[in-house]
Backbone:
Protein backbone atom coordinates (compact mmCIF):
# COMPACT_ATOMS: atom_id res chain seq x y z
CA UNK A 1 0.00 0.00 0.00
CA UNK A 2 1.20 3.47 -0.88
CA UNK A 3 0.73 6.95 0.50
CA UNK A 4 -1.49 9.16 -1.69
CA UNK A 5 -1.42 12.96 -1.58
CA UNK A 6 -3.88 15.50 -2.97
CA UNK A 7 -2.82 18.90 -4.34
CA UNK A 8 -5.84 21.17 -4.06
CA UNK A 9 -5.95 24.61 -5.69
CA UNK A 10 -8.50 26.99 -4.21
CA UNK A 11 -8.99 29.84 -1.77
CA UNK A 12 -6.79 28.53 1.05
CA UNK A 13 -3.62 26.49 1.43
CA UNK A 14 -0.05 26.42 2.75
CA UNK A 15 1.28 27.84 -0.53
CA UNK A 16 0.33 30.98 -2.49
CA UNK A 17 0.16 30.35 -6.24
CA UNK A 18 2.25 32.94 -8.07
CA UNK A 19 1.84 31.70 -11.64
CA UNK A 20 0.33 28.85 -13.67
CA UNK A 21 1.89 28.34 -17.10
CA UNK A 22 0.95 25.73 -19.68
CA UNK A 23 4.22 24.32 -21.01
CA UNK A 24 2.54 21.72 -23.27
CA UNK A 25 -1.13 20.99 -23.94
CA UNK A 26 -3.99 22.35 -21.85
CA UNK A 27 -3.03 24.45 -18.80
CA UNK A 28 -4.76 24.55 -15.41
CA UNK A 29 -6.78 27.40 -13.89
CA UNK A 30 -5.08 30.01 -11.75
CA UNK A 31 -6.20 30.05 -8.11
CA UNK A 32 -5.01 31.96 -5.01
CA UNK A 33 -3.57 29.04 -3.05
CA UNK A 34 -2.53 25.39 -3.04
CA UNK A 35 -3.04 22.93 -0.19
CA UNK A 36 -1.17 19.62 0.06
CA UNK A 37 -2.43 16.82 2.26
CA UNK A 38 -3.35 13.16 2.48
CA UNK A 39 -5.86 12.16 -0.21
CA UNK A 40 -8.45 11.21 2.44
CA UNK A 41 -8.50 14.76 3.84
CA UNK A 42 -11.52 16.70 2.59
CA UNK A 43 -10.84 20.02 0.84
CA UNK A 44 -12.54 23.06 2.31
CA UNK A 45 -13.60 26.19 0.45
CA UNK A 46 -13.90 26.60 -3.30
CA UNK A 47 -11.80 24.09 -5.23
CA UNK A 48 -10.38 25.16 -8.61
CA UNK A 49 -8.72 21.81 -9.28
CA UNK A 50 -7.47 18.80 -7.37
CA UNK A 51 -4.71 16.43 -8.46
CA UNK A 52 -3.79 13.17 -6.74
CA UNK A 53 -0.57 11.18 -6.74
CA UNK A 54 1.08 8.34 -4.87
CA UNK A 55 4.57 7.89 -3.43
CA UNK A 56 5.48 4.73 -5.28
CA UNK A 57 8.60 2.67 -5.89
CA UNK A 58 11.33 3.86 -8.25
CA UNK A 59 10.81 2.83 -11.86
CA UNK A 60 14.19 3.42 -13.54
CA UNK A 61 16.87 4.14 -10.91
CA UNK A 62 19.64 1.60 -10.42
CA UNK A 63 21.04 0.91 -6.95
CA UNK A 64 24.04 3.17 -7.66
CA UNK A 65 21.74 6.03 -8.74
CA UNK A 66 19.44 5.54 -5.74
CA UNK A 67 22.40 5.67 -3.34
CA UNK A 68 23.72 8.81 -5.02
CA UNK A 69 20.29 10.49 -4.85
CA UNK A 70 19.68 9.49 -1.22
CA UNK A 71 23.07 10.82 -0.14
CA UNK A 72 22.64 14.16 -1.83
CA UNK A 73 18.93 15.03 -1.88
CA UNK A 74 17.65 17.42 0.81
CA UNK A 75 14.43 17.04 2.80
CA UNK A 76 11.24 18.97 2.06
CA UNK A 77 10.17 21.93 4.24
CA UNK A 78 13.63 23.40 4.86
CA UNK A 79 13.19 26.84 6.46
CA UNK A 80 15.04 28.60 3.62
CA UNK A 81 13.11 26.84 0.83
CA UNK A 82 10.22 29.31 0.61
CA UNK A 83 9.74 28.82 -3.15
CA UNK A 84 8.12 25.77 -4.73
CA UNK A 85 6.99 24.43 -8.08
CA UNK A 86 4.43 21.77 -8.94
CA UNK A 87 4.93 20.27 -12.41
CA UNK A 88 2.16 17.89 -13.53
CA UNK A 89 3.15 15.91 -16.63
CA UNK A 90 1.39 13.49 -18.95
CA UNK A 91 3.36 11.35 -21.40
CA UNK A 92 1.99 9.99 -24.67
CA UNK A 93 0.60 6.54 -25.38
CA UNK A 94 3.74 5.92 -27.48
CA UNK A 95 5.86 6.27 -24.31
CA UNK A 96 3.75 3.84 -22.30
CA UNK A 97 3.77 1.30 -25.13
CA UNK A 98 7.57 1.14 -24.99
CA UNK A 99 9.21 -1.79 -23.19
CA UNK A 100 11.02 -1.21 -19.89
CA UNK A 101 14.49 -1.38 -21.51
CA UNK A 102 13.45 1.15 -24.17
CA UNK A 103 12.01 3.60 -21.62
CA UNK A 104 15.09 3.26 -19.38
CA UNK A 105 17.38 3.88 -22.38
CA UNK A 106 15.57 7.11 -23.27
CA UNK A 107 15.15 8.21 -19.63
CA UNK A 108 18.76 7.85 -18.56
CA UNK A 109 21.26 6.63 -21.18
CA UNK A 110 20.02 9.17 -23.77
CA UNK A 111 18.30 11.93 -21.78
CA UNK A 112 20.31 11.69 -18.50
CA UNK A 113 17.22 12.57 -16.45
CA UNK A 114 18.68 11.50 -13.07
CA UNK A 115 22.14 12.86 -13.89
CA UNK A 116 20.68 16.30 -14.76
CA UNK A 117 18.69 16.35 -11.51
CA UNK A 118 21.82 15.50 -9.48
CA UNK A 119 23.48 18.67 -10.79
CA UNK A 120 20.95 20.74 -8.82
CA UNK A 121 21.32 18.98 -5.48
CA UNK A 122 21.21 19.93 -2.67
CA UNK A 123 19.64 23.24 -3.79
CA UNK A 124 16.41 21.74 -5.14
CA UNK A 125 14.38 19.28 -3.02
CA UNK A 126 12.02 17.04 -4.98
CA UNK A 127 9.21 14.55 -4.40
CA UNK A 128 7.67 12.50 -7.21
CA UNK A 129 4.03 11.38 -7.12
CA UNK A 130 2.66 8.76 -9.54
CA UNK A 131 -0.84 9.45 -10.85
CA UNK A 132 -1.26 7.32 -13.96
CA UNK A 133 -2.66 4.21 -12.28
CA UNK A 134 -5.15 6.39 -10.36
CA UNK A 135 -6.90 7.36 -13.60
CA UNK A 136 -5.82 10.98 -13.14
CA UNK A 137 -5.41 13.52 -16.00
CA UNK A 138 -1.61 13.53 -15.48
CA UNK A 139 0.89 10.66 -15.12
CA UNK A 140 3.23 12.38 -12.62
CA UNK A 141 3.13 15.29 -10.21
CA UNK A 142 6.61 16.47 -9.25
CA UNK A 143 6.94 18.82 -6.32
CA UNK A 144 10.09 20.96 -5.94
CA UNK A 145 11.22 23.26 -3.10
CA UNK A 146 14.12 25.73 -3.21
CA UNK A 147 15.31 29.04 -1.79
CA UNK A 148 14.50 32.20 -3.82
CA UNK A 149 18.16 32.57 -4.86
CA UNK A 150 18.01 29.14 -6.56
CA UNK A 151 15.00 29.82 -8.79
CA UNK A 152 17.24 30.61 -11.78
CA UNK A 153 19.02 27.27 -11.26
CA UNK A 154 15.64 25.58 -11.14
CA UNK A 155 14.68 27.23 -14.45
CA UNK A 156 17.90 25.88 -16.00
CA UNK A 157 17.10 22.40 -14.69
CA UNK A 158 13.68 22.53 -16.39
CA UNK A 159 15.14 23.89 -19.63
CA UNK A 160 17.70 21.08 -19.76
CA UNK A 161 15.07 18.40 -19.15
CA UNK A 162 12.70 19.88 -21.74
CA UNK A 163 15.51 19.73 -24.32
CA UNK A 164 15.94 15.95 -23.90
CA UNK A 165 14.63 13.19 -26.16
CA UNK A 166 12.47 12.02 -23.23
CA UNK A 167 10.47 15.25 -23.50
CA UNK A 168 9.40 14.36 -27.07
CA UNK A 169 6.97 12.04 -25.27
CA UNK A 170 5.53 14.74 -22.96
CA UNK A 171 2.13 15.74 -24.33
CA UNK A 172 0.89 17.82 -21.39
CA UNK A 173 2.92 19.81 -18.85
CA UNK A 174 1.92 22.63 -16.52
CA UNK A 175 4.36 24.74 -14.49
CA UNK A 176 2.89 26.06 -11.23
CA UNK A 177 5.10 28.37 -9.14
CA UNK A 178 4.41 29.01 -5.46
CA UNK A 179 5.57 30.90 -2.38
CA UNK A 180 5.09 29.55 1.12
CA UNK A 181 2.31 31.33 2.99
CA UNK A 182 3.84 32.77 6.17
CA UNK A 183 0.54 32.71 8.05
CA UNK A 184 -0.10 28.96 7.97
CA UNK B 1 -5.00 7.35 -17.80
CA UNK B 2 -5.46 3.65 -17.25
CA UNK B 3 -8.36 1.23 -17.25
CA UNK B 4 -9.33 0.03 -13.76
CA UNK B 5 -11.24 -3.18 -13.10
CA UNK B 6 -13.02 -4.38 -9.98
CA UNK B 7 -13.23 -8.06 -8.98
CA UNK B 8 -16.27 -8.42 -6.75
CA UNK B 9 -16.98 -11.61 -4.80
CA UNK B 10 -20.60 -12.04 -3.77
CA UNK B 11 -23.86 -13.73 -4.66
CA UNK B 12 -23.77 -13.12 -8.41
CA UNK B 13 -21.18 -12.88 -11.16
CA UNK B 14 -19.94 -14.34 -14.44
CA UNK B 15 -17.76 -16.86 -12.63
CA UNK B 16 -18.61 -19.43 -9.93
CA UNK B 17 -15.96 -19.58 -7.20
CA UNK B 18 -14.85 -23.19 -6.69
CA UNK B 19 -12.15 -22.67 -4.05
CA UNK B 20 -10.30 -19.93 -2.17
CA UNK B 21 -6.91 -20.98 -0.77
CA UNK B 22 -4.48 -18.85 1.21
CA UNK B 23 -1.03 -19.55 -0.22
CA UNK B 24 0.77 -16.99 2.02
CA UNK B 25 -0.57 -14.67 4.72
CA UNK B 26 -4.25 -13.99 5.31
CA UNK B 27 -6.72 -15.61 2.87
CA UNK B 28 -9.97 -14.13 1.54
CA UNK B 29 -13.54 -15.22 2.32
CA UNK B 30 -15.24 -17.84 0.17
CA UNK B 31 -18.27 -16.56 -1.76
CA UNK B 32 -20.52 -18.13 -4.42
CA UNK B 33 -19.52 -15.98 -7.38
CA UNK B 34 -17.12 -13.40 -8.80
CA UNK B 35 -18.04 -10.50 -11.06
CA UNK B 36 -15.48 -8.59 -13.13
CA UNK B 37 -16.23 -5.17 -14.49
CA UNK B 38 -15.11 -1.56 -14.79
CA UNK B 39 -14.33 -0.02 -11.41
CA UNK B 40 -17.08 2.61 -11.86
CA UNK B 41 -19.76 -0.09 -12.14
CA UNK B 42 -21.69 -0.48 -8.88
CA UNK B 43 -21.77 -3.97 -7.37
CA UNK B 44 -25.21 -5.41 -6.73
CA UNK B 45 -26.16 -7.88 -4.02
CA UNK B 46 -24.11 -8.86 -0.98
CA UNK B 47 -20.42 -8.19 -1.45
CA UNK B 48 -17.93 -10.48 0.34
CA UNK B 49 -14.86 -8.59 -0.94
CA UNK B 50 -13.90 -6.30 -3.76
CA UNK B 51 -10.41 -5.88 -5.24
CA UNK B 52 -9.38 -3.25 -7.77
CA UNK B 53 -6.52 -3.18 -10.25
CA UNK B 54 -5.39 -1.21 -13.26
CA UNK B 55 -4.08 -2.26 -16.68
CA UNK B 56 -0.78 -0.43 -16.54
CA UNK B 57 2.43 -0.35 -18.54
CA UNK B 58 4.93 -3.21 -18.35
CA UNK B 59 7.49 -2.83 -15.56
CA UNK B 60 10.24 -5.35 -16.41
CA UNK B 61 9.73 -6.75 -19.92
CA UNK B 62 12.26 -5.88 -22.59
CA UNK B 63 11.16 -5.27 -26.19
CA UNK B 64 12.24 -8.82 -27.14
CA UNK B 65 10.20 -10.32 -24.29
CA UNK B 66 7.16 -8.13 -25.11
CA UNK B 67 7.27 -9.21 -28.75
CA UNK B 68 7.55 -12.87 -27.74
CA UNK B 69 4.63 -12.53 -25.31
CA UNK B 70 2.41 -10.65 -27.76
CA UNK B 71 3.02 -13.23 -30.48
CA UNK B 72 2.21 -16.19 -28.27
CA UNK B 73 -0.34 -15.10 -25.67
CA UNK B 74 -4.01 -15.92 -26.32
CA UNK B 75 -6.98 -13.58 -25.78
CA UNK B 76 -9.28 -13.79 -22.78
CA UNK B 77 -12.80 -15.30 -23.10
CA UNK B 78 -11.90 -18.14 -25.48
CA UNK B 79 -14.90 -20.48 -25.68
CA UNK B 80 -12.88 -23.49 -24.43
CA UNK B 81 -11.31 -21.59 -21.49
CA UNK B 82 -14.06 -22.29 -18.96
CA UNK B 83 -11.66 -22.40 -15.99
CA UNK B 84 -10.05 -19.37 -14.39
CA UNK B 85 -7.86 -18.36 -11.48
CA UNK B 86 -7.48 -15.02 -9.73
CA UNK B 87 -4.20 -14.71 -7.81
CA UNK B 88 -3.89 -11.56 -5.67
CA UNK B 89 -0.31 -11.02 -4.44
CA UNK B 90 1.37 -8.58 -2.10
CA UNK B 91 5.15 -8.25 -2.02
CA UNK B 92 7.16 -7.10 0.99
CA UNK B 93 8.54 -3.63 1.73
CA UNK B 94 12.01 -5.10 1.11
CA UNK B 95 11.00 -5.81 -2.52
CA UNK B 96 9.69 -2.30 -3.13
CA UNK B 97 12.81 -0.74 -1.58
CA UNK B 98 14.98 -2.47 -4.19
CA UNK B 99 16.22 -0.44 -7.15
CA UNK B 100 14.84 -1.16 -10.64
CA UNK B 101 17.97 -3.08 -11.73
CA UNK B 102 17.84 -5.24 -8.58
CA UNK B 103 14.14 -6.05 -9.03
CA UNK B 104 14.66 -6.83 -12.72
CA UNK B 105 17.62 -9.12 -11.89
CA UNK B 106 15.53 -11.12 -9.40
CA UNK B 107 12.39 -11.10 -11.58
CA UNK B 108 13.96 -12.36 -14.78
CA UNK B 109 17.68 -13.13 -14.73
CA UNK B 110 17.39 -15.18 -11.50
CA UNK B 111 13.73 -16.22 -11.28
CA UNK B 112 12.89 -16.37 -15.04
CA UNK B 113 9.34 -15.14 -14.38
CA UNK B 114 8.54 -14.27 -18.02
CA UNK B 115 10.38 -17.30 -19.37
CA UNK B 116 8.39 -19.66 -17.10
CA UNK B 117 5.13 -18.03 -18.19
CA UNK B 118 6.03 -18.45 -21.86
CA UNK B 119 6.26 -22.24 -21.35
CA UNK B 120 2.50 -22.33 -20.72
CA UNK B 121 1.41 -20.34 -23.78
CA UNK B 122 -0.95 -20.50 -25.57
CA UNK B 123 -2.77 -22.76 -23.07
CA UNK B 124 -3.01 -20.15 -20.27
CA UNK B 125 -4.33 -16.65 -21.01
CA UNK B 126 -3.31 -13.99 -18.51
CA UNK B 127 -4.08 -10.37 -17.62
CA UNK B 128 -2.12 -8.46 -14.97
CA UNK B 129 -3.72 -5.69 -12.91
CA UNK B 130 -1.64 -3.29 -10.78
CA UNK B 131 -3.15 -2.41 -7.40
CA UNK B 132 -0.32 -1.03 -5.25
CA UNK B 133 -0.67 2.64 -6.24
CA UNK B 134 -4.43 2.43 -5.61
CA UNK B 135 -3.85 1.80 -1.87
CA UNK B 136 -5.30 -1.71 -2.19
CA UNK B 137 -4.47 -4.62 0.16
CA UNK B 138 -2.63 -6.41 -2.69
CA UNK B 139 0.00 -5.17 -5.15
CA UNK B 140 -1.12 -7.26 -8.16
CA UNK B 141 -4.19 -9.18 -9.27
CA UNK B 142 -3.38 -11.69 -11.97
CA UNK B 143 -6.25 -13.25 -13.88
CA UNK B 144 -5.75 -16.53 -15.76
CA UNK B 145 -8.08 -18.45 -18.11
CA UNK B 146 -7.56 -21.99 -19.40
CA UNK B 147 -9.44 -25.08 -20.56
CA UNK B 148 -10.16 -27.76 -17.90
CA UNK B 149 -7.55 -30.10 -19.43
CA UNK B 150 -4.84 -27.49 -18.77
CA UNK B 151 -5.48 -27.03 -15.05
CA UNK B 152 -2.62 -29.43 -14.15
CA UNK B 153 -0.28 -27.38 -16.36
CA UNK B 154 -1.46 -24.24 -14.61
CA UNK B 155 -0.70 -25.85 -11.22
CA UNK B 156 2.83 -26.64 -12.45
CA UNK B 157 3.24 -23.02 -13.59
CA UNK B 158 2.32 -21.77 -10.10
CA UNK B 159 4.60 -24.32 -8.39
CA UNK B 160 7.55 -23.24 -10.54
CA UNK B 161 6.97 -19.54 -9.82
CA UNK B 162 6.53 -20.17 -6.08
CA UNK B 163 9.90 -21.96 -6.04
CA UNK B 164 11.76 -18.90 -7.38
CA UNK B 165 13.83 -16.37 -5.43
CA UNK B 166 11.28 -13.71 -6.44
CA UNK B 167 8.69 -15.49 -4.29
CA UNK B 168 10.83 -14.95 -1.15
CA UNK B 169 9.40 -11.41 -1.37
CA UNK B 170 5.74 -12.51 -1.57
CA UNK B 171 4.16 -11.94 1.82
CA UNK B 172 0.51 -12.46 0.90
CA UNK B 173 -0.95 -14.64 -1.86
CA UNK B 174 -4.43 -16.05 -2.36
CA UNK B 175 -5.38 -18.62 -5.00
CA UNK B 176 -9.00 -18.33 -6.19
CA UNK B 177 -10.24 -20.96 -8.66
CA UNK B 178 -13.34 -20.41 -10.78
CA UNK B 179 -15.60 -21.95 -13.43
CA UNK B 180 -17.46 -19.84 -15.95
CA UNK B 181 -21.18 -19.59 -15.16
CA UNK B 182 -23.07 -20.90 -18.20
CA UNK B 183 -26.16 -18.83 -17.45
CA UNK B 184 -24.60 -15.36 -17.71
Residues:
Amino acid sequence: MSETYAFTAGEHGQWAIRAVTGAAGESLALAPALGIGPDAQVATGGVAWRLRGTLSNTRYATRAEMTDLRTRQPALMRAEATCAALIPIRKSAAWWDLAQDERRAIFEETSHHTAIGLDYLPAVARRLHHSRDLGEPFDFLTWFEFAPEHEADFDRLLARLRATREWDYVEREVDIRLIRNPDI
About this structure: Helices of chain B lie at 63-72, 93-96, 100-110, 113-118, 151-162. Chain B is about 25% helix and 35% strand. Chain B has a mean pLDDT of 94.
